[in-house]
Amino acid sequence: MTAKELAALIDHTLLKPAATDEDLARHCREAMEHGFRAVCLFPSQLRAASAILSGSGVVLAGVVAFPHGASTLLSKVFEALEAWKLGASELDVVLNLHAIASGERAVVEEEIRTIMEKTPECRHKFIVETGLFSEEQLSPVLRILEQRRPAFVKTSTGVNAPGASPRDVALLRSRLHTSIGIKAAGGIRTLDQARDLVAAGASCIGTSAGVDLMRQAASP
Fold first, then answer.
1. Catalytic residue among 92, 168, 192, 196
2. Rounded CA separation 192/213 (Å)
């Protein structure tokens, strides 16, 4: 995998609560300079980022209910719609983790269906937080996602549990239709990690260390 090929998989992520306007502008410039697939931001940053990225080809993604997924469905739908109106064409949605833990399949199913129906213009990445749950707990959620066919299923937020592992990615890849991409995210800071995750089946890498990965890829 060349540096250019890796860059095309990276969602360049800036989800630091105290990030400044200067941080945001630099982040967007880095994405354009390196040819990253997307930038992933809080909703309040989307309008400014949309103006900077206009015409660049870099995808703009906004998080929804980040990082705990504990908002009500109505709140999530409003946040998703607002993110789309502010320029996001992709939504990284943290699913209701309490419902997953409690086995409340109907709650999870309604959340996925409603958000996808209310924001049909967007591509959706649903975060299942693999590090928190057993395969048994995730199985009903993966069956719902298999049926609904979002653009991506995402391993983790990187906040609530250990981040992406090749084992988690391989599990998702084995349980989901090939049309559904797998986004590995959380704690990805080395080129070897990124390569291992791609080898396991990841089609997208979410990381705040994209520039570092590019430096590593360019090293002899």
1. 92
2. 9
DSSP category for residue 130: G
3-state secondary structure of 40: strand
pTM over cut 0.85: yes
Full pLDDT tens readout for the chain, 220 residues: 899 999 999 999 999 999 999 999 999 999 999 999 999 999 999 999 999 999 999 999 999 999 999 999 999 999 999 999 999 999 999 999 999 999 999 999 999 999 999 999 999 999 999 999 999 999 999 999 999 999 999 999 999 988 899 999 999 999 999 999 999 999 999 999 999 999 999 999 999 999 999 999 998 7
Partners of 206 in the β-ladder = 11, 185
DSSP 43-75: GGGHHHHHHHHTTS--EEEEEESTTT--S-HHH
**212 is known as an active-site residue:** no
> Is 16 noted as a catalytic residue in this protein?
no
3-218: what CATH class? alpha beta
Look up 92 and say whether it is catalytic. yes
* CB neighbours of residue 187 within 10 Å: 17
Domain boundaries, the chain: 3-218
With tokens 């409690």, the residue in question is: 102
> Could you give the CA distance from residue 48 to residue 87 in angstroms, rounded to a whole number?
9
Tell me which of 11, 76, 168, 183 is the catalytic residue: 183
Q: Which of 11, 76, 125, 154 is catalytic?
A: 154
